[in-house]
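Section handout, structural biology tutorial.
Before the tutorial, make sure you can parse a SMILES string by hand: atoms, branches in parentheses, ring closures as digits. In the record below the ligand is flavin mononucleotide, and the chain has 206 residues. In the tutorial you will relate the predicted structure tokens back to the input. Do not try to memorize them.
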Amino acid sequence: MASTGKRPSSESRETKETKETKELREPQKLDFFAVVHSRFSVRAYQKREVEPDLLRKILEAVNQAPSAGNLQAYEIVVIRDIDRKRALARAALDQNFIAEAPVVLVFLANPRRNQWRYGRRGSDLYCLQDATIACAYAQLAATALGLGSCWVGAFDDRQVLNILHCPQPLRPVAILPIGWPDEPLEHRPRRSLSDLVHYERYEGQG
Ligand SMILES: Cc1cc2nc3c(=O)[nH]c(=O)nc-3n(C[C@H](O)[C@H](O)[C@H](O)COP(=O)(O)O)c2cc1C
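Predicted structure of the complex:
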């Protein structure tokens, strides 16, 4: 049937709703705010594995993240090898807790996947945003499973690329160690909403 350019009616959309998707959207199952408010940067981990099925859950959640044009212009490298984790810790200015985590994810922007459609905006911005959102999803998914993580952004790009055998133009965006927390939840202070949020126009000094 030729497309009318119209969105499907609510009736036809309704028919695509399965029992499974309906259940996913039930508010009491989301528990989203509890996850958001219990995430904090965890830099000490128990000596306990992160089982492959839990890691898979995290990666599947990441794969649901939005991305520009749904092009998913990023890559994820999963690292469990201790020598490679140590090398990453060194590349991250000796942030040794990275090597203590049972599993480490590295999120890399991949401009090759989107610049054909978006040009400079794709390669300079969207691929970084895609990788960033993906990493944020991973942090929240890990939290929802009781795991802790810490976004590491301070590292030498070139060293990280070498350690992971990644060719340019891939660009590492975040190193994310994940493990079972060995420190109590700590809420770090935040800006007040009155300072952070601007209505209708920005009146601050920049
Ligand atoms: C872009 C970015 C870079 C970061 N880099 C580092 C880092 O290199 N090392 C580190 O220990 N934490 C790093 N963090 C974690 C922040 O320090 C942490 O999120 C912030 O202090 C707020 O604390 P919370 O995550 O516990 O709420 C980074 C976070 C972001 C978003």
